[in-house]
Specification:
Blueprint: H1 9-14, E1 33-39, E2 44-50, H2 75-83, E3 109-114, H3 117-123, E4 127-133, E5 144-150, H4 154-158, H5 179-182, E6 207-208, E7 221-222, E8 226-230, E9 246-248
Antiparallel strand pairs: 1-2, 3-4, 4-5, 6-8, 7-8, 8-9
């Protein structure tokens, strides 16, 4: 029809980025407070992000877990609740293709706080984020909060999009049909490395989750975030210990 242009099949495919799985929520919901302490004489800084759980059920499950019960309810009931909204039946791996971002429990809520100009100049960090994940993720299949510190603003990260097939994680590098999708570098090419071949900006022993690795997802890259790196040994340790992740997008952390 006049005035309208139909999308080609490739344009429609490239538009499937998984952005819908990141519904934002206001930082004020959790009374988030961001604090930065910079020591200019030692070139060191401390950044902390504090929050207060609501306890009113607005974000389900996450306020209930304890050190003795990570699920906050009967584990079987928890698995059934999340599986009914898209998790695999064994309850150990999430199903990216069925993660619509519109579920009550199997969802991934995100809040962001920007840094002051002074803090950005002193630390290189521009944005802090809090994730609420009631049904867990691939390597942490229990309800939890996640805290991220970014060298990119929220607006910059919103431009990071890859072809996902409707799930959370990017498809293989060979399937990406935009330059932005290829900048996730899921094939590993172009990511800065050290003299010993290990990746820069990751803790010792960690690696980025690339195409073809024995992992429950195509790789470790996701829209609005980047390519995840981690020490695989950490995924089998005590789940009460924080899991430390690194990120890459377009050769930047």
């Amino acid at each position: 029809k006049k005035g309208k242009t139909a999308k080609t099949s490739e344009q429609a495919t490239c538009a499937v980025t998984g952005s819908e799985v990141w519904p934002p929520f206001p930082a004020s919901d959790l009374k988030m407070i961001l604090t930065t302490d910079v020591n200019t004489s030692t070139c060191q800084y401390d950044i902390s992000l504090a929050y207060q759980p609501r306890g009113d059920g607005l974000y389900p499950i996450v306020d209930s877990p304890t050190a003795e019960n990570f699920f906050g309810m009967d584990p079987i009931e928890y698995d059934e609740l999340c599986t009914a909204e898209g998790r695999l039946e064994d309850g150990t791996v999430l199903t990216p293709e069925e993660h619509s971002g519109l579920n009550e429990h199997y969802n991934h809520f995100v809040a962001n706080m920007g840094f002051s100009e002074r803090a950005m100049a002193a630390t290189g960090i521009k944005n802090a984020g809090m994730d609420i994940v009631p049904c867990g993720q691939i390597v942490t299949p229990f309800p939890h909060y996640g805290i991220h510190f970014w060298s990119a603003t929220y607006e910059e990260r919103a431009e990071r999009a890859c072809y996902t097939g409707g799930g959370i994680f990017c498809r293989d590098y060979s399937e990406q049909c935009t330059e932005g999708g290829r900048k996730f570098q899921t094939n590993g090419e172009g990511i800065p490395t050290c003299d010993d071949g290990s990746f820069k900006n990751l803790p010792k022993g960690a690696s980025f989750v690339l195409d073809g690795m024995p992992f429950p997802t195509p790789n470790g890259a996701s829209t609005n975030v980047g390519l995840h790196g981690l020490d695989f040994a950490d995924t089998t340790g005590d789940p009460r210990n924080p899991l430390i992740l690194g990120l890459n997008y377009d050769s930047n952390w």
